[in-house]
Design a protein that fits this description.
The chain has 115 residues and is α+β, with helices and mostly antiparallel strands. The protein is built from four helices and four strands. The chain has helices at residues 6-13, 33-47, 77-84, 87-97, and strands at 20-28, 53-60, 67-74, 101-111. The chain has a four-stranded antiparallel beta sheet with strand order 2-3-1-4. Helix 1 runs antiparallel to helix 3 and helix 2 (33-47) runs antiparallel to helix 4 (87-97). The protein is globular.
């Protein structure tokens, strides 16, 4: 899945009800890095208040100053789907972050298994 619009389809159709994780690799234009960091701090503040969020962390890449990693864990596919449907996510985060992107982000959506 290399586009956020791919994720809701699975979240809506799956019969899986356990915990899910989403890791997003963000490629940001060098001139937008500071603005993106500010946006991500706002995004963290909003998201950590949402029901069903277990883990939500924003990290810098070890090598590149304009690559960032967002690591999320949610109680269920429904909780993540609710997050992706919030006005903050759609009207603020996506609307503001997409113009800062150097290239499309990469995403990994996965079931969290306690093996």
């Amino acid at each position: 899945m290399n586009n956020i619009v791919d994720v809701p389809g699975w979240l809506k159709s799956t019969k899986y009800t356990g915990q899910v994780g989403l890791t997003v690799k963000c490629y940001i234009r060098p001139e937008s890095v500071e603005e993106f960091k500010t946006l991500m701090n706002e995004h963290l503040e909003h998201t950590l208040k949402e029901p069903g969020v277990l883990h939500f962390k924003f990290n810098s890449d070890y090598e590149s100053g304009n690559i960032f990693w967002l690591v999320e864990e949610w109680e269920s596919p429904g909780a993540l789907l609710t997050h992706l449907s919030t006005p903050w996510f759609k009207d603020q985060y996506l609307a503001r972050s997409i113009p800062m992107s150097q290239q499309p982000s990469q995403r990994a959506l996965y079931k969290i298994n306690n093996l």
